[in-house]
Amino acid sequence: MAEKQKTPLGPTGETVRQNIERIRTAKRLTYVELSERLTELGRRIPVLGLRRIERGERRVDADDLMALAVALGVNVSALLLPNTAEGTVELTGVGTVDAKRAWQWADGMRPLRIPEGDDGTARVDFQRQARPAGLRRYGMTGPGRQALMEEYDGAPIRRRRDGTFFREWPDGRVEELDIKPFDDDLGE
Questions:
Q1: N or C: where does the chain have the smaller number of CB atoms within 10 Å of the terminal CB?
Q2: In sequence order, what E strands does the chain have?
Q3: The pTM is what?
Q4: Alpha carbon distance 182, 84 (integer Å)
Q5: What is the spatial distance between Cα 185 and Cα 8, in angstroms, rounded to a whole number?
Q6: Which carries the bigger pLDDT value, residue 181 or residue 171?
């Protein structure tokens, strides 16, 4: 019988491996302590399993990833992406991309790629799929304003000079809105 060949870790698997080791070490957690935390969370990974993950000999599935993020006190993106916002990073299925853009994508703020000549609809479409209503961050383009109006029951949304948003109802009520539009530094 032929020996089963393991698929090597891709760039994201390698990043996850490195980040788990980096964060565990920075927090001065032993394998035993991390294993105990995971067991308490209901996702047991024995010490040997953790060692194998950090050596790249064991893959991390989605449930492991979520439990490891909780046990290490970080978000899932902190495990999935290289620990940098400078230069470029390698992402599985995408290749090399700008590190800052990769983080914005992973945080659900913008698509990885925006088509040339886009009128703002690429971000709006991405936001509608990437984040739940109330946590979306639309750009203040025509499509972004339209998406805000749709999300907030069709009432016109206004922006004050201080950057806060509100809508005024026909009966004179003013409703403050917790809307976080794209910041200027998030451009292409």
A1: N
A2: 88-91, 95-98, 158-159, 165-168, 174-177
A3: 0.74
A4: 21
A5: 37
A6: 171
pLDDT in tens, 84-113: 999 999 999 999 999 999 999 998 888 998
| Category of 10 on φ-ψ map: left (φ > 0), alpha (ψ -120 to 50) or beta | beta
Strand order in the sheet with 174-177: 158-159, 165-168, 174-177
Query: Which of 175 and 59 is assigned the larger pLDDT?
Result: 59
Q: Are 20 and 14 in contact (CB under 8 A)?
A: no
CA 59 to mean position of chain CA atoms? 20
Task: Write the DSSP symbol of residue 172.
Answer: S
pLDDT by residue (tens digit) across 123-171? 888 888 888 877 777 666 666 667 766 766 666 677 777 877 777 777 7
Q: Quick check: 123 and 110 in contact, CB under 8 A? A: yes
Which residue, among 64, 48, 8, 44, has the nearest Cα to 20 in the 3D structure? Answer: 64
Cβ atoms of residues 85 and 99 within 8 Å: yes
DSSP designation for 89: E
Burial of 35 (0-12, 13-18, 19+ CB in 10 A): buried
> Can you tell me the distance from the alpha carbon of 70 to that of 67, in angstroms, rounded to the nearest whole number?
5
Which of 74, 73, 85, 83 shows the shortest CA–CA distance to 109? 85
